[in-house]
Amino acid sequence: MEPVRTCVGCRARAPRSSLLRVVADGSVLVRDERAILPGRGAWVHETDACVGKALARRAFVRALRVSGPLDTQTFESTLQRNG
């Protein structure tokens, strides 16, 4: 049985393999494609709708328990290039 995670964008539960793990590297939001980077991770569907909702609601900041603002520019640009 595959682990289930909750998308921080739409709040729907989904199998881990269908979600993208995101971590904070300092104050920069980073994709964790292989889900092996150290630290706390947040899971999100790799769609514009879910990522947009998560960014608008500041869900990544809360889920990753980061004290200050996150730089999401790099994350958003890599998401647009890949999808």
Structural commentary:
- InterPro entries: YlxR (IPR037465), YlxR-like_sf (IPR035931), YlxR_dom (IPR007393).
- It comes from Microbacterium mcarthurae.
- This is YlxR family protein.
- By secondary structure, the chain is of the alpha+beta class.
- It contains 3 helices and 5 strands, in the order βββββααα.
- β1 and β2 form a beta hairpin.
- It is globular and about 35 Å long.
Number of helical elements: 3
Q: Determine the strand fraction and express it as a percent band.
A: 25-35%
Give the topology string: H per helix, E per strand.
EEEEEHHH
Task: State the helical fraction.
Answer: 25-40%
β-strand number:
5
| Poorly predicted parts | none
Structural class: alpha+beta
Give the terminus-to-terminus CA distance.
28 Å
In round numbers, the mean pLDDT is 92
Across the major sheet, the strand order is: 4-3-5
- Major beta sheet summary: 3 strands, antiparallel
Shape: globular
Radius of gyration, whole Å: 12 Å
Provide a short characterization of the protein structure.
It comes from Microbacterium mcarthurae. By secondary structure, the chain is an alpha+beta fold.
